[in-house]
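Tutorial, part two.
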Amino acid sequence: DTLLYITPFSAKKTIEQSAGRIERYVVGKNKPLVIDIMDLKSKFAIKLAEARLKHYKTLGMKEVLATKKLQ
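Running the prediction step on this input gives:
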């Protein structure tokens, strides 16, 4: 019930497909959790992280946490 992203990417389809797999409802299943490890030292990785955050919002993923505010 947990998905861990550790590679920088920004493809909405990748998020849709992988997150959708753990979000499928099954009786007794725990609430799905997506953890996105963001590299905040690389300008390129920050841009990808910003795009992912937008995708999460458009996909209705309500609880997205970041350890540090993106520029």
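The first helix runs from residue 12 to 23. In part three we will examine how such features are distributed along the chain.
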